[in-house]
Specification:
single chain; three-stranded antiparallel beta sheet; 4 helices; about 40% helix
C-alpha cells in the first residue's frame, strides 16, 4: 500500500498544512468537512493544492517531515511547479 503527501491551504499564499496519509481522498474530505479538530479546522484549510504519491507510507511520512522543514519559498515553488494557479485538486481525486 502506498502513501500520499499533501498540502492544503485556505487561499493562494495563505496558511497551509502539510500532511501524509494512505487514503488521500478520505483525509482531504475529513479536513474539508471539519471532522477533525485542530489546525486545519481552525484556519479553514480545505483546498488541496499539492499531492504526491509514494510507494509506501514511510516514504511519504519522511517526505512530509522534509517539506515541513523547508523554507516557505521552496514550498511555494513546489506548488507552482505542478499547480501554478493554486486550483483545488480535490475534485480530480479518483
Amino acid at each position: 500500500m502506498g502513501g500520499w503527501v499533501s498540502i492544503l491551504t485556505n487561499r493562494r499564499n495563505g496558511a497551509w498544512y502539510v500532511g501524509s496519509t494512505v487514503n488521500l481522498a478520505r483525509r482531504v474530505w475529513e479536513h474539508r468537512e471539519g471532522v477533525v479538530d485542530g489546525f486545519t479546522k481552525r484556519y479553514g484549510l480545505s483546498r488541496l493544492v499539492y499531492a504526491e504519491h509514494h510507494t509506501n507510507i514511510l516514504s511519504a511520512r519522511q517526505r512530509e517531515m522534509n517539506i515541513k522543514h523547508w523554507p516557505r519559498a521552496w514550498k511555494v515553488r513546489l506548488i507552482h511547479r505542478d499547480n501554478p494557479d493554486w486550483e483545488d485538486l480535490y475534485d480530480r481525486l479518483a
